[in-house]
Amino acid sequence: MGQQAGRTQAGASIHQAIRFLQAGETGKAAVCLSALDVSRETSRARCNLAGLILLAAGQIQLALEWFERALAFAPHDPETLLNRGVALQELLRPDEALAAYEEAMRAGCQKPALYYNHGNLLRSAGRHWDSLASYDLALRLDPSYLEALCAAGIVLGELKQYEEALERLDKAIAIEPRCAAALIHRGNLLQECERHEEALAPYSEALDLAPEPERAAEILNNRGSAYLALGRLPEAHADLAEALRLAPSLPQAWSNQGNLFLKLQQPGEALSAFEKALCLRPCYLEALCGRAVALKHLGRFSESLKAFDGALACDPSSPHARNNKAALLLLLGEFTQGLELYESRWIFAGTPKDALKLPADEWNGEPLEGKKIIVFDEQGNGDAIQFSRYLILLVRKGANVTFFCRRSLHRLFRTLGANIRLTVETGPGEHFDYQIALSSLPRAFKTRLETIPVLSPYLHAEPPLARQWAERIGPQGFKTGICWRGNLNPKADPSRSIPLSCFERLAGLEGVRLISLQKRDGSKDYETLPGLTSPGEDFDSGEDSFIHAAAVMQNLDLIVSCDTSIAHLAGALGKPVFVLLKQVPDWRWLLGREDSPWYPTMRLFRQRALGDWDEVMERVRKAILALCHG
After folding, report:
1. How wide is the angle at C-alpha 227 spanned by C-alphas 185 and 182, nearest 5°?
2. Across 366-471, where does the E strand assignment appear?
3. In terms of C-beta distances under 8 Å and separation of at least 24 residues, what long-range contacts does 51-57 make, across chains too?
4. Which residues of the chain have pLDDT under 70?
5. 517 contacts: CB under 8 Å, gap ≥ 6
6. Rounded distance between C-alpha atoms, residue 49 and residue 28, angstroms
7. What is the DSSP letter of 333?
8. pLDDT digits over 582-604, tens only?
9. For strand 532-533 and strand 512-516, is the pairing parallel, antiparallel, or unpaired?
């Protein structure tokens, strides 16, 4: 066959392949080119075209051979270099693909796809800032390049540049409102920013696009996790159940369902869900930690410790595993190792210590005579009240103590009776010799069970305020303050709260007056318990609410509380207090004892069966009768 005839046959084969390709018959398109000999082709254009057809047909290795033949005629042709890079990327030869793309850039290629593909390779290599620069170059050439906008948004999210990331995704959605990828990633980013309520809308919009079952399961799982974070448990249950119906092999959905069952106080079901997740993905850190937590709530403590060790074998630096193992060790009274691991909570959540970045050394027990130390408030009000006793110990060591804490506690902590500066800000250039977080003080003081500092009372009611409340409350009856609900934040532990109806068996006790100490949160459920009185609409109002709570408590005979800050305040005031605890409580209450080494006037009433508050309340009723009638 002559050279001219060969060119004619090659051209005809390529045109026939294009027609098949346009008809969606990629296999036939590839067959059309199978008779051609790449080594005999003399046209760069035909080589390039054949390579593109084979690339579209999935014949990547053959496509690469045609692109390399094209480069034999024009080694610096930018379009062919780009095409060769695409083939190498498809063949999972990233270093060669990266080199091909960069050679195409040097040759002057100005196609947005070049910079987009280059960015994808850089991102896969962990070079996030470099990949972002490539995506930006693609967008400079084509501002409406949807895939590049989405990719840039994802990378910015990975770099924790959340507002910029959301801005890129919003641009993508403005260009194509039905872009499922942008909607899903927008929801994911909002969740990372803990804007769970806002995340619901993009997930729902993505679901409305009727994606294939596996993609729908992914979206339902993500939306279910948002509902879970918001404490909207029925919606979370529905989404996760549907996700698992559509994709039973989705480990994230099983893990989220495990977390849901923990919130629902069903640790047995949670354990089963986490184990199903781990069957699908054995080194799944979140599920490993969840399994350990479920075992803890089932009272299987030695198994739980081994499970946390398994999680740490998967990721030794995991703050989630370290923090949860610390809580279990402390619950078991093992303070030496527990307090060391408890320091992992710094990685787990940001605090004022992180924000201020003071150049002071961490205090680890060094002499403090004449030294300035700043202590940072952290965690909940109960933690602040419990560990504020250590501030007195710092003063006794001769330190000049500054306590950086929320303003709502200042007035209460002024009653500590020590020279402690309370502040919500530090002055410019202010110097401190040492810094420490409040809940790190037990570790720095090398606290053990037998050396817990007992200072009772160490907080006090203001006498004038206590007298005002005494007049309002009056002297009648055995005055019993009750608190049945803790923090309403969905992240808090709802299982510590007690249905108000459980207190009905106390309401009918002769001579006993029940007075609500419940924080005002818009609910008026206290009106549903016969005989329960409120101190008044002004109780627990304003930023100094705890000082009013302390003044009211000073005039009570007994406080009965769930595990919340009211219980800690009563103990710190040295008032008789009954604390009602779930079966496996927070670490500070330890296990199996009716007293608390932290508070001498406290008595603990523990659930004997999971979720059974009625039996707990019956014991409380008998104990109150014994107090009233000797």
Report:
1. 10
2. 372-376, 400-404, 420-423, 434-437
3. 51/83, 51/87, 52/83, 53/14, 53/17, 53/18, 53/21, 53/29, 54/30, 55/83, 55/86, 55/87, 55/90, 56/21, 56/26, 56/29, 57/21, 57/26, 57/27, 57/29, 57/30
4. 1-11, 17-18, 20-27, 29-30, 35, 346-356, 488-492, 520-527, 540-542, 630
5. 481, 482, 483, 535, 549, 552, 553, 559, 561, 566
6. 16
7. T
8. 999 999 999 999 999 999 999 99
9. parallel
Residues forming a β-bridge with 479:
513
Q: What angle do CA 138, 139, 143 make, to 5 degrees?
A: 140
d(CA 50, CA 66): 7
Characterize 363-382 residue by residue with b for buried, 16 or more Cβ atoms within 10 angstroms of its Cβ, and e for exposed: beeeebeebbbbbbbbeebb
Helix (H, G, I), strand (E, B) or coil at 585: coil
Residues sharing a CB contact under 8 Å with residue 417, sequence separation 6 or more, in sequence order: 392, 458, 460
Q: Can you give the pLDDT at residue 468?
A: 93
Please give the pLDDT value at position 5.
44
pLDDT for position 353:
65
Please identify which residue in the block is written with the tokens 């989630």.
320
Instruction: Give, as one character, the DSSP assignment of residue 81.
Output: H
Element spanning 7, H or E: helix 3-22
CA distances to 278, 311, 428, 515 from 317, in Å: 20, 10, 35, 47
Residue found by looking up tokens 């206290």 in the block: 526
Q: What is the pLDDT of residues 171-219, one digit of tens each?
A: 999 999 999 999 999 999 999 999 999 999 999 999 999 889 999 999 9
Give the residue carrying structure tokens 């800032």: 129
Neighbours of 58 (CB within 10 A): 12
Sheet-wide strand order for 512-516: 532-533, 512-516, 478-483, 558-562, 577-581, 599-606, 595-596
Handedness of CA 386, 390, 393, 395 (dihedral sign): negative
Residue type, 211: P
To the nearest whole number, what is the mean pLDDT of the chain?
90
- What pLDDT, on the 0 to 100 scale, is given for residue 284? 95
- Return the bridge partners of 126, or none: none
Select from 551, 546, 544 the least CA-distant residue to 564.
546
pLDDT for position 2: 43
Question: Concatenated DSSP letters for 365-379?
Answer: S---TT-EEEEE--S
Would you state the pLDDT for residue 541?
Answer: 67
